[in-house]
Amino acid sequence: MKDACAFLGESSARFTASEITTHGRARALDGDEARLGVVDDVFYATMNAPVPGAQWTGIVTSVAREMLRSGKVDGVICVGSAADDSRAPEPVLATTDEEILATRGVKPSLSPNLKVLAEVEARGIKKLLFIGVGCSVSALRAVEPYLGLEKLYVVGTNCTDNGPREGFNKFVNAASEDPDTVMHYEFMQDYQVHLKHTDGSYEKVPYFCLPANDLVDVIAPSCYSCFDYVNGLADLVVGYMGVPYMDKPMDKHPQYVTVRNARGQEMVDMISDKLTRTPSTSTGDHRQFVMQTVIADDEAKLGRGPEKPAPRFVGKTIAWILTKIGPKGKSFGFYSLDYHVIRNYIYVNRVWGSKRASEHVPEYAKQIVKEYDVDGAVSARLKLRLPSKSR
Ligand code: FAD
Question: What is the pLDDT of residue 390?
């Protein structure tokens, strides 16, 4: 596991090799795959009967339940809640429908999913479904040949800017007027964080009203060095990053589904009669907003962001204007992806130095960085202060 970790050694080369083993090919470096990873199919989808208590409409939970019910797997690694803290993640090996259902909903902090693998072996599970974010999936792929499984299916979620459990409290204390009742939150395409409370109500806080200077440490250092927002090694990925906000609550809102290979398709087929699918859409040019966000974020990280967040009505107005003129759908997803890639590229170069950063950053990410000339003119002009060797 130490050798397999996504954040150690020549992880870029290892990632590409794993992509080929998993999907039969590496992602194409031209077109959408450079950002989305290997793609057989992409669409928006909603469960016709949403799973009560799920994060969105419960596509992930529904796939897991059907996989177990049909006997395609005999166990599912998923993430429940700690016994004494419903918002703290606790990975489990679920072998009944009730156990899977109990894990619905995101507990938004880092979860050590791989620790359950020992239990898989001990309980003699041979057909496994693993649910997890990109960093745990890439480590899982590295040890896959040694697990002695007859069949492994992987449902991934998109993931970015995860963090330690304490980070969740710090974030909701800063964002919400009633932090103790926040169960879930998502950064939506209307430039607002939607916080879902235990009574089912939603609170919407514009991004610009968050105290950016105070929140830099809620994100884990590993997430600042991650280039796998899209979970490139999962068979099937469910997220929301490429879906325009459709003015409905999360638990009725379409999601973004990426099928990477035949196992992914097999899993979608298990619930296709319970899903409404719509095609993916994309409008607006994401590129013009990316570097502005990178710079604003960098200033905040260096403690030079606005002293106070924008007042609520100003934040709401900015969010409203950006929703009118900014990118939407897949293009918004690409805005978010490019921003994270560039931000993290700057981070690993600063913290690790250019040699280690170069071994770590995958080719597809380097290509995105080049598109914005981050190493050259942009870095100099914007004083991003990359170490000179990274040029
Ligand atoms: P549900 O049916 O409610 O199922 C949720 C599943 O998440 C469960 O199976 C559970 O096992 C698993 N889970 C719960 N907590 C964790 C955890 N801490 N780590 C790993 N798995 C967990 N999508 C984006 O588009 N952009 C993002 O930035 C983004 N960030 C995310 C960060 C995290 C930590 C997680 C877990 C997911 C993130 N997602 C993101 C995906 C999104 O929030 C939903 O998880 C996904 O769309 C599935 O929705 P659903 O209704 O089908 O989930």
Answer: 46
